[in-house]
Amino acid sequence: MVLKVGFIGLGRMGLPMSYRLLQAGFDLTVQNRSQGKVNEIAGAGANPAYTAAQVTKKCDVVLTCLPDVATSEEIFLGEDGVVENARPGQILVDTSTVGIGTSKACAAASESKGARFLDAPISGGIERAADGTLTIMAGGPKDAYDTALPIFEAIGATVRYMGPTGTGTVAKLVNQLLVGIHSVAAAEAMLLGAKSGADPAMIFEVVNSGWGQSFMLGRNAPVMLDRDFEGVRTQVKVFQKDMGLIQDLIRDLGMTAPGADLAYQMVNQAVEKGFGEMDPAAIVLPLEEQAGYRIKKRP
Question: Which residues are part of the catalytic machinery?
Fold first, then answer.
């Protein structure tokens, strides 16, 4: 039996993920706040819906990819939302980046309706969403994960069951912690090398082939060198939200995490400077202001 799959949230990540599911042969129903994207993918064969309730009533598995905690809670837990319209045996999946409390609340509410909930956040960016090679980290009932696995495999190359409810969310927050810290480190390193007189392009080439390499250096250094900070792929404000969720988790655990604190401070500084809509590599811009020097390619 081909699963009837619903997808709510056709943003930067959700739309290409939905196309992958459609290409994999799933009977797909989609819904988004702006109807233009629904109409676009409906032209490729998806079934259009106008509300989360319509998606939930029609589908066996419902996935969401939403921009923030408030939207996830509204779509899942709000009036006439996903949970209110859920039925026994249904599988509800949130691929958004939220806090553990949100994931557990959605799971508990789902269970009260006889449905099963998976927190299954994603990592990889829009490029990997488009080619179906995302990393997916799922927490929740194992039987629900096993049923949803063919769906995950249509959109992800690294798909892992992390354990009980909340463990997928934890894995994503750990990922984002490293993303934040490595982004700050990449900005500092590139600026340090450039202001010291070295060719920043050469610094990037050499360091990214040694022990100092990181995915975020590989991603952000070209953005800094090209001065192309337009927030097309993602934005600083998204990382501000994620680093805030990490701060919440750190406080709940009674930990100290100086690297997380610094990354959160740097992201907040970039947003306060008016760079929130820009690419995450723009966290280098306040550092450049303080240093009185801009990273630039040599002629």
Answer: 172
- Other CB atoms within 10 A of residue 238 CB: 18
The CA distance from 120 to 165, in Å, is: 10
* pLDDT tens digits along 197-245: 999 999 999 999 999 999 999 999 999 999 999 999 999 999 999 999 9
Long-range contacts of 45-51 (CB under 8 A, 24+ apart): 46/18, 46/22, 49/6, 51/80
pLDDT digits (tens, 9 = 90+) for 136-168: 999 999 999 999 999 999 999 999 999 999 999
Q: Which domains does the chain have, with CATH numbers?
A: 4-165 (3.40.50.720), 171-291 (1.10.1040.10)
CA-wise closest residue to 272 among 247, 221, 236, 244:
236
Q: Counting Cβ atoms within 10 Å, is residue 239 exposed (0-12), middle (13-18) or buried (19+)?
A: buried
